[in-house]
């Protein structure tokens, strides 16, 4: 379970990270300790405490790597996030059974990524 924010710096960090994680894409996540995780974005969960005792937030996302390992990452542990989606990478993830590209409609896979 993700940790609650403790101060405004934590809250600002949550906003920044949530804006940079490409939902539904293939991502590269750098953690605060320097570790790097690359994989298919699976899900996210962001919640608040409804203001009880002062507003607090927490968030986490799940990433599935090429070897089908799944990692649930606390947003407060993420230093940066970016998309690594491109044609060769997406083709590799499809071959590995991690994503499905829809070639019935040219450009549909770009639309699914929000581009």
List the helices and strands and how they pair.
Blueprint: H1 8-20, E1 26-31, E2 36-48, E3 57-64, E4 70-74, E5 78-83, H2 87-95, H3 108-112
Antiparallel strand pairs: 1-2, 1-5, 2-3, 3-4
Annotated CATH homologous superfamily of the domain at 8-85: Protein of unknown function (DUF3247)
Cα-based radius of gyration, to the nearest Å: 16 Å
Q: What top-tier CATH class of the domain at 8-85 fits best?
A: Mainly Beta
Low-pLDDT sequence parts = none
Number of distinct beta strands: 5
CATH architecture level-2 label of the domain at 8-85: Roll
* Major pleated sheet: 5 strands, antiparallel
Walk me through the structure.
This protein is α+β, with helices and mostly antiparallel strands and 115 residues long. Strands 4-3-2-1-5 form a 5-stranded antiparallel beta sheet, with helices on both faces. It starts with 7 loop residues before the first helix and ends with a helix. The mean pLDDT is 90. It has helices at residues 8-20, 87-95, 108-112; strands at residues 26-31, 36-48, 57-64, 70-74, 78-83. It has a domain at 8-85: SH3 type barrels, CATH 2.30.30.720.
């Amino acid at each position: 379970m993700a940790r609650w924010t403790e101060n405004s710096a934590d809250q600002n960090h949550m906003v920044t990270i949530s804006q940079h994680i490409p939902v539904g894409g293939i991502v590269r996540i750098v953690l605060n300790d320097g570790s790097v995780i690359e994989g298919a974005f699976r899900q996210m969960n962001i919640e608040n405490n409804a203001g009880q005792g002062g507003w607090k937030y927490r968030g986490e996302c799940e990433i599935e790597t090429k070897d089908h390992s799944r990692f649930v990452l606390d947003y407060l542990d993420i230093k940066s996030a970016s998309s690594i989606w491109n044609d060769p990478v997406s083709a590799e993830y499809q071959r590995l059974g991690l994503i499905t590209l829809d070639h019935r409609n040219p450009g549909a896979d770009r639309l699914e990524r929000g581009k």
